[in-house]
Amino acid sequence: MTYEKPSVTVDCVVFDDRGRLLLIRRRNPPFAGQFALPGGFVDPGETTEAAARRELAEETGLQARDLRLVGVYSKPGRDPRGWTISIAYLVTTEEGAPQAGDDAAEVEFRSDWRELPLAFDHSEIVRDAVTMRAD
Amino acid sequence: MTYEKPSVTVDCVVFDDRGRLLLIRRRNPPFAGQFALPGGFVDPGETTEAAARRELAEETGLQARDLRLVGVYSKPGRDPRGWTISIAYLVTTEEGAPQAGDDAAEVEFRSDWRELPLAFDHSEIVRDAVTMRAD
Questions:
Q1: Residue B104: how many other CB atoms lie within 10 Å
Q2: d(Cα B131, Cα B129) in Å, to the nearest integer?
Q3: Residue A98: how many CB atoms within 10 A of its CB?
Q4: Cβ neighbours of residue B89 under 8 Å, at least 6 residues apart?
């Protein structure tokens, strides 16, 4: 018996010490041009934690230090490309200025993140991460 | 560009009020005949939480009440069938005696769970869930 399989992605919630949120502007569809959390597809042979570290480095140049699991996001329809489950981490990083790479057209720590519409269900992920930080 | 996709499963950690752990004895390979947590593959169109509730009901007859995310388990090689990522939940259930169904040959709350070798990385999942309960 074969099962249909989902795509699995990781998303990284990174705040700097001034409470700004690291956001990329997406280069590619879906949501091209919109702000989003850094992240991407998990590769075969890597853990989801390793995928989060790799995607963060590829898209922002920042090196992850600690990862805390925020949640698993799997609502049907959350990704227009099809069935996609995302694992979100709250990530602390090494010092340094972010630099856009890979799928990110721009990347920066934004202080106005509360007002920005984010791609996918990333606003929900950020809300959950903020609740977790407050614990 | 197409990506290779993982299978995604859910696993349920359920303790009764006497601290016994709900375990099934697996009917099918891999690990046929071994003890394991109730769980199974996530279906298209359902959330991972819904999958956990469904699998628990199918395999044990118990209805899930609350779910708390324990972790995401994605170490390469953790499932001999291939690339499989599991989402584990600590679950409270409605009252009732478990009854084996579906992939489970037997199901029961076991007080000797600390001494039993469990299938896959389920011992690691249980350890993490126990740490979480103690918080």
A1: 24
A2: 5
A3: 22
A4: B10, B11, B12, B13, B49, B52, B67, B68, B69, B70
Whether the pTM exceeds 0.90: the reply is: yes
Q: Which of B106, B108, B115, B124 is catalytic?
A: B106
pLDDT along chain B (135 residues), means of 10: 87 96 93 95 97 97 97 97 97 92 85 97 98 86
Summarize pLDDT for A72-131 with one digit per residue, the tens.
999 999 999 999 999 999 999 998 899 988 777 899 999 999 999 999 999 999 999 999
B124 belongs to the catalytic site: no
Q: Which ipTM was obtained for this model?
A: 0.93
Q: What angle do CA B77, B73, A42 make, to 5 degrees?
A: 80
User: Do residue A8 and residue B7 have CB atoms under 8 angstroms apart?
Assistant: no
The catalytic residue among A106, A108, A115, A124 is A106
| Shortest Cα distance, chain B CAs vs residue A73, angstroms | 8
Question: Residue B85: which of A4, A8, A83 has the nearest Cβ?
Answer: A8
CA of A45, closest CA in chain B: separation in Å? 5
Is A74 in Cβ contact with B47 (below 8 Å)? yes
Contact at CB, A83 and B44, closer than 8 angstroms: yes
List, in sequence order, every beta strand (DSSP E) within A49-101: 64-73, 84-93
pLDDT tens by residue, A76-93: 999 999 999 999 999 999
Cβ contact (<8 Å) for A76 and B48?
no
